[in-house]
Amino acid sequence: MPIEKTDAIILKSFKYGDTSKIARCYTRDFGKISIIGKGIRKGKALRSAYFDPLSYLSLLFYYNPKRELQIFSKAEFKGIWHSLRRDVKKLSYGFAVLELVDRSVTGEEPHEELYQLLLDILQYINDSNGRINKVFWFFEIHLLSLLGFRPRLSDCPHCHNELTEGQFSGEYGELLCNDCYDKNIKRSHFIVKDSAVSHRAIGLLKKLKRGNIKDLEEIKLQPGDRKQVGRFLNNYLKFHLEGIRDLKSLQVLEQIIS
């Protein structure tokens, strides 16, 4: 069985038996994989810490493409996000990022852009002194785009008129202009509460969609932005990605920032 080396970020882990541990991780070269550290909970605590969520590693493992569970060999920390781990709000956002990747990505196909997005976002959260919700929105909208669900923000998918403001449609999974939403809602069984998105919120979403992570500091927020932008992205994720509705980290995050 060949031994492989790759950079990895631990998404989730759990104990296995009396001394072992299993971790799901997103890697630069293999996509999402699961690894088992046999006996890793014995001896030095450092070895077990490799499997903690948010660990950023240079990972060596025995790789068998026919197996769902790969075998851990050894690892080194490539970096430690101290600020992220010590700040409750940052930690909550970090876990929400990990859980979104874990729930939305399937299979072992590598995705360099997605790996780099995950790494950049966690580093930015760690270094941030400002509003972390902008960073999280940026992550959500770019994750959606990379997975093939790029939000349609320029025109109404029903009448194709320019979108200046609108409502999220639980039937279309996109923003509808107010006129089409009002007509559609009378016969729709997929009603989404608090679905309105203002002209300003659409503008913010467009900036996040086409912007660079380094441009986030230039985006200024006003009262009400968090509710409209955050709620739209949450609705969009739940509609287009399976398994997102019951994300525990997002529920905790809502309690912390509310």
How would you describe this structure in keywords?
single chain; 258 residues; alpha+beta; OB fold (Dihydrolipoamide Acetyltransferase, E2P); de novo design (two linked rop proteins); 2 domains; three-stranded antiparallel sheet; 21% strand
Question: What does the model show?
Answer:
- The chain has a five-stranded mixed β-barrel with strand order 1-2-3-5-4.
- The chain is elongated.
- The chain has two domains: 1-80, Beta Barrel (OB fold (Dihydrolipoamide Acetyltransferase, E2P)); 85-258, de novo design (two linked rop proteins).
- It has nine helices and eight strands.
- With 258 residues, the chain is an alpha+beta fold.
- Helix 5 (132-146) runs parallel beside helix 8 (225-240).
- The protein has helices at residues 45-49, 82-86, 88-104, 112-127, 132-146, 178-185, 199-210, 225-240, 248-257, and strands at 3-16, 20-27, 31-37, 56-62, 69-79, 166-168, 175-177, 196-197.
